[in-house]
């Protein structure tokens, strides 16, 4: 019992403050593996019924072993994109850790710098995808210098999804894991003042935005009323996109929506889902300041990632109509936009 409490305390303390009584972080691998253990400990298979502490330690140890025992990896250029692809010598692409951080070797000084790989900009926002814009805003708000590479081919990314970062020898995918990695790796204090309840609420808001993503994406690619305006904006700002490219992307998205489920909703049903999420945001975001006070946290970056991708678009979807008619959401969006501009 005492052990379980200690284990929970370890994860709670370390997740809450990034400091607590945890021993000092011993390097990037240690930071990354701690982040991985925290992320996975509540969901990892546990056939031997280990305590949270032991399970967390096991995840940490196998992550560290993967770093130290794995064959050397090297980054190679993907001929179709500017993104580095991961290749393990003598074999097919293979991540060192199944989630969290992968180890690569930067091939140039440029690649050694923290680099965000994400989708292209649109309508004046730095990434037309909410997840990538979240990370972009986070990096700006946290004041970390980085390079931004806009790409469209996600095949080189961990899990083949954008965004991802390359930071020296580390490659991390998934917007939330990226934020967690950067916070621990660089000792960032952007969320240091948050209370435990703020972090829980922030987590729920983040997951709700993951759901809003689908409705937002549906409004662009699937709803026949808005697709032409979205297509034309993409073509205008990114003339390199061919008709064939767009046709394939639309087809691919239609499949994703179908299997995720949103594709089986009639437009008005889908927007009812999206505006219900936005209503919760409108209830939570204060009339001035940020979600948890006068200074923005990583959760404000997450809100911005999705709301800016609705508000700044010259496409009058029901989602945009909702945001535009809520002054607190508009002011929040403009405030973050101003801070990171
Ligand atoms: N959980 C991920 C989600 C990222 C995501 O859904 N990325 C999509 C955006 S469209 C993607 O890159 N999809 C490419 C594909 O599935 O091929 C995060 O938070 O970063």
Automatic annotation (TrEMBL):
InterPro entries: FAX/IsoI-like, Glutathione-S-Trfase_C_sf, Glutathione_S-Trfase, Metaxin_GST, Mito_Protein_Transport_Metaxin, Thioredoxin-like_fold, Thioredoxin-like_sf. Residues 133-225 form the Thioredoxin-like fold domain. Residues 77-99 are annotated as: Disordered. It holds the Pfam family GST_N_4. SUPFAM superfamilies: GST C-terminal domain-like (SSF47616), Thioredoxin-like (SSF52833). Residues 276-336 form the Metaxin glutathione S-transferase domain. This is Glutathione S-transferase. It comes from Methylorubrum populi (strain ATCC BAA-705 / NCIMB 13946 / BJ001) (Methylobacterium populi).
């Amino acid at each position: 019992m005492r052990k379980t409490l200690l284990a929970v305390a370890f994860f709670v303390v370390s997740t809450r403050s990034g400091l607590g009584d945890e021993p000092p972080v011993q390097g990037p691998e240690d930071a990354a593996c701690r982040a991985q253990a925290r992320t996975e400990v509540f969901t990892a298979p546990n056939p031997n019924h280990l305590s949270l502490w032991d399970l967390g330690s096991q995840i940490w140890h196998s992550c560290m072993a993967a770093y130290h025992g794995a064959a050397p990896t090297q980054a190679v250029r993907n001929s179709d994109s500017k993104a580095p692809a991961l290749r393990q010598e003598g074999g097919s692409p293979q991540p060192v850790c199944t989630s969290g951080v992968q180890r690569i070797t930067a091939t140039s000084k440029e690649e050694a710098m923290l680099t965000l790989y994400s989708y292209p900009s649109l309508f004046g926002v730095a990434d037309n995808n909410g997840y990538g814009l979240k990370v972009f805003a986070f990096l700006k708000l946290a004041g970390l210098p980085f390079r931004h590479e806009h790409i469209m081919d996600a095949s080189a990314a961990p899990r083949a999804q954008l965004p991802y970062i390359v930071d020296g020898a580390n490659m991390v995918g998934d917007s939330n894991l990226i934020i967690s990695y950067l916070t621990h790796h660089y000792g960032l204090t952007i969320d240091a003042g948050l209370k435990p309840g703020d972090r829980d609420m922030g987590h729920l808001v983040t997951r709700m935005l993951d759901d809003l993503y689908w409705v937002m994406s549906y409004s662009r690619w699937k709803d026949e009323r808005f697709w032409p305006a979205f297509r034309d904006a993409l073509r205008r700002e990114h003339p390199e996109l061919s008709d064939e490219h767009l046709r394939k992307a639309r087809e691919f998205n239609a499949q994703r929506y179908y299997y995720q489920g949103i594709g089986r909703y009639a437009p008005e049903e889908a927007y009812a889902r999206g505006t219900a999420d936005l209503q919760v945001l409108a209830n939570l975001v204060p009339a001035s300041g940020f979600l948890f006070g006068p200074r923005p946290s990583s959760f404000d970056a997450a809100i911005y990632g999705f709301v800016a991708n609705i508000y700044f678009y010259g496409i009058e979807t029901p989602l945009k109509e909702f945001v535009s008619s809520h002054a607190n959401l508009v002011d929040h969006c403009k405030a973050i936009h101003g801070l990171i501009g």
